[in-house]
Amino acid sequence: MRKLLIGFAVLLLVGWGPARADVINLADDYPDQYVVVKGDTLWDISARFLESPWLWPKVWTVNPQIDNPHLIYPGDIVYLVFVNGKPELRLKRGDRKLSPEIRTSSLEQAIPAIPLQDIKSFLSDNLVLSENLLDKAPYVIGGVNESIIAGAGDRVYARGDLPDDEQNYFGVYRPARTYTDPDTGEVLGYESQSIGGGYLVNTKDDILTLELKRTSEEVRVLDRVLPTQEQVVQSVFYPSAPATELSGKILSVLRGVAKIGQFDVVAINLGQREGLEPGHVFHVYKQGEIIKDPVTGEMLTLPKERGGVVMVFNVFEKVSYALVMEAQNTLSVLDEVRSAR
């Protein structure tokens, strides 16, 4: 976890890709300085100073006198100055107690850019697959003693072919929903949720035997077996506007709620084929309300209003997951997303 936070903070502050001619506007009530507290994120702090928090690096000034100035801790002071009429944000180290554990604990206390706890499960536990890949994946046919459900410590049997490589740990996934483009009707992918994982202990013809090591739900018949890697959750992002003008729509909210608010995870109908990458930022525009003209009686659709900001953190071929960083209004499925500018 220590390395995750280091990489996240460093790359967010200094590695944002090609420079853009974005306009830097300060927040209406920006402070002269701010003392970082536990629970802050870089996005939170920059939002105190800037109208567009993701433009933080354009006004960040590295202080060479500070050992590793890219890491920010509770107690540090972020302050604003103007140089040649342009705003700059600088850092002054706060007082922190030193202890024999400072080399390990202090790094873990460095603040992340966004709340990682809100996206971890969606980075590691959810996949959006093509129909071809889902159909070809081995499927669970049963468990020991003819059981139809199984949990950690049990053995299950699946039928199908796995990649011919040295990997012996596989994930068990359950198809959750189909993503269809709301405008074209194109099937964009099939979301599958991680149910568990286990080791391949035997293969006979096309019958696979897996010993389950972890489960979040009971493994059932027809759950799919797919290659997976027990890897560290990605936490390195490059928040920026996409290189080209893009627009899409919110397909779903992944926590099963009807209305969408801050820190909810949404799926949008844009992905790798449109050039999306983790860190791309979009503005959300709410659907205009339909009202009746009191004079003519006509039904009119009001203009769309900007209602929030989302940042993409996981990208598949035709679908991406994004975290709602700001929500001025309650957002909804089918609201429009547009490249942040």
Biggest β-sheet description:
7 strands, antiparallel
The amount of beta strand, in percent, is: 35-45%
Query: Which structural class should the secondary elements be placed in?
Result: mainly beta
For the record, give the distance between the C-alpha atoms at the N and C termini, rounded to a whole number. 33 Å
Overall outline: globular
Radius of gyration (CA) equals: 24 Å
Mean pLDDT: 82
Fraction of residues in helices?
10-25%
How are helices and strands ordered from N to C? HEHEEHHEHEEEEEEEEEEEEEEEE
Query: Domains counted in the coordinates: how many?
Result: 3
Question: Got a strand count?
Answer: 20
Number of helices: 5
* Uncertain runs: 1-21, 99-105
Question: If you had to describe this structure to a student in words, what would you say it looks like?
Answer:
By secondary structure, this protein is mostly beta strands. It has three domains: 2-113, no CATH class; 125-227, no CATH class; 247-339, FlgT, C-terminal domain (Thrombin, subunit H, Beta Barrel), CATH 2.40.10.410. It is 11% helix and 36% strand. The protein contains five helices and 20 strands. The strands form five sheets. Strands 4, 5, 7, 8, 9, 10 and 12 form a seven-stranded antiparallel beta sheet that branches. The chain has a six-stranded antiparallel β-barrel with strand order 13-14-19-18-15-20. Strand 9 (187-204) and strand 10 form a beta hairpin. 31% of the residues are buried. Residues 1-21 and 99-105 have low confidence and may be disordered.
